[in-house]
């Protein structure tokens, strides 16, 4: 029994030292917590945040809560750009950051600063 354990442990060490654990690393996803603020540093709630991967595809999209917070789970590692739309589906210009780098198995917290779209005037037709 002890010999089988020693052999199994030696095999595990050999795999770990040769880099064969890359297969395990590739299956570990990342988490990103984003808080959206407007250019006056006020939390911007109830907006939709999309993370766009290097291929230009939306990898994930979710709405923020009332405090402007959204959490994305299960992301692959890579670099994402952020797109934000308000409740009226108007695009908000992202002032910073330009992109978000996500690492394997890591949790990242990011503050995103956006410019609120102009408020549309309502006019009464007579």
Question: Short description, anyone?
Answer:
The chain is an alpha+beta fold. The chain is built from two helices and eight strands, in the order H-H-E-E-E-E-E-E-E-E.
Radius of gyration: 22 Å
State the CATH topology of the domain at 29-115: Immunoglobulin-like
Q: Give me the secondary-structure category.
A: alpha+beta
Shape assignment: elongated
Task: Flag low-confidence runs.
Answer: 20-24
Distance between the termini: 92 Å
Q: Look at the structure and name the CATH superfamily of the domain at 29-115.
A: Immunoglobulins
* H/E element sequence: HHEEEEEEEE
What does this structure look like?
This protein is α+β, with helices and mostly antiparallel strands and 126 residues long. It has a domain at 29-115: Immunoglobulin-like. The chain has 2 helices and 8 strands, in the order ααββββββββ. Strands 1, 2, 3, 4, 5, 6, 7 and 8 form an 8-stranded mixed beta sheet that branches. A hairpin with a 5-residue loop joins β5 (78-85) and β6 (91-96). It is elongated and about 90 Å long. The N and C termini lie far apart (92 Å). Residues 20-24 have low confidence and may be disordered.
Task: Give the SSE map.
Blueprint: H1 2-18, H2 22-26, E1 30-38, E2 48-52, E3 58-63, E4 69-75, E5 78-85, E6 91-96, E7 100-102, E8 107-115
Parallel strand pairs: 1-8
Antiparallel strand pairs: 1-4, 2-3, 2-5, 5-6, 5-7, 6-8
């Amino acid at each position: 029994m002890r010999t089988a354990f020693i052999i199994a442990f030696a095999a595990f060490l050999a795999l770990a030292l040769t880099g064969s654990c890359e297969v395990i690393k590739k299956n570990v996803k990342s988490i990103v917590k984003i808080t959206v603020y407007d250019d006056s540093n006020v939390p911007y709630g109830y907006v939709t945040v999309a993370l766009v991967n290097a291929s230009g595809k939306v990898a994930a999209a979710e709405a923020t809560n009332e405090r402007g917070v959204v959490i994305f789970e299960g992301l692959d590692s890579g670099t994402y750009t952020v797109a934000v739309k308000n409740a009226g589906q108007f695009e908000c210009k992202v002032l910073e950051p330009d992109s978000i780098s996500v690492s394997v198995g890591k949790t990242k917290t990011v503050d995103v600063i956006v410019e609120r779209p102009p408020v549309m005037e309502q006019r009464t037709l007579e």
